[in-house]
Amino acid sequence: MVIDRVREIGHGMEGFGDSAEVTGTGGVSVVTDTRRHKSSVRLFLWCLAAVAVLTASVGALHPAPVLADWAPPQTVYVPRTGHTSDGLFLQAWRNQRSLLGDPVTEEFTTQTGLGLDPDAEQIVQYYENLALVYLPDEAPENQVRTLDLGQASLAAALENQPSAALTRAARRTSCPTSGGDCLAFSETGHTVDNGFRVAWEEADGELWLGLPISEAYRAPNGTWIQYFERGALQAPTTGVVKPLPLGRMSAQRLELDTTRIVRPFNAPLFASSLFVTPPVPEAADDVVPVEGVAPLEDAALVEEAAPLVDAAPVAEPEPIVEEVVPVVEEVPVYNGPGAQQGAYQEVVISISAQMLWAYEGGELVNSTYVSTGTAEVPETTTPIGSHSILTKVDMQDMEGTISGEDYFVADVPYVMYFDNLGNALHGTYWHSNFGAPMSHGCINLPMDVAAWMYEWAPVGTAVTVIG
After folding, report:
1. First to last CA, the chain
2. Which of 125, 341, 432, 450 is 20 to 30 A distant from 283 in Cα terms?
3. Which domain holds residue 91?
């Protein structure tokens, strides 16, 4: 407590005498009355303590404002792979996305042999590099862990005509006597060293990857690979260590369903901003007084000071009439104009609505606001009609000249050209004013939708622009 600390300081001053000689920074000695000085300091410290206590009390009564109705989503749709991530798996994926990769299956139940009951079925989901399992009977911090994909994959590789390098790498060994960065594990009889050790430790490897079960070896394609209990790391010729996609490889080997799904209605496209608490709107500083109405802070005082007067007669209460609530029919969700060319996959853009709809098999799978051409001149008009995706480019610079003015935009992502005049669907990072015409004729897409569409729509996908 602040007051207790002040008492300690006060007691520490009681040893002073009636006067003392104090030497200032300039070397001049001054005789002071320490009793008067002590009393003044005590008074100051007690005031300081009182202010601190009052401040703490006010803070407790008026905590910082929060948005009571805000919560991050529990399920998201990952457009790059066409699957969802949910609940505790979503939390683990957000924390370790670079290690796990994106989901390649939906959640399903199967026996894993893990948990308190080895015969029970657990919820499992495969990601590109690892697979997650939910163990509800474990302690909260251990309820999500990774499956032993590394052990299963290494065993399968050793049974399928392994290379001599892999066979040697699977033999038990220990660190050389010279030491260095080598780290040995007697439990598995293997070591981790150099760049693999750095990557393993940075990824909290013992938790997510498990211990090494092979040494690093050079695969026939020149890539260095090392297996761990639950995953594997690889170092291509570039030398950058990254996860081996054992999740995708294992899903294929086990013939799991990796088919992309239609985005569920309640699952937003994943974006980091979904998990950032929005700012609390600030209250207006100035309150405009209304004539004849006292400000709120003075209302209680006015009421308390007002003299008692005869109250006006109270009107008889009207009889209570049971309110009849009209039945309102639910408004159907607007699924857009529908596919216009009759293609299995089709993208439809409305210039008047500044909207895009994506259809697959006649079903709406995605929709978003877009920005089409400003139409200030013919060159900035998005062409109406039936088109198709002709070419796709991951990223490129865009430049040109319109009405004598040059423009240049660097690193435009997810470019999908739909005519031979340079008009394309593409990601847009330089503005977020979707729902209004903004472009030179292209169709500006939000970045998350563009990433999804680039994976979803192959060359030849129908594109229809309506007015």
Report:
1. 71
2. 432
3. 75-147
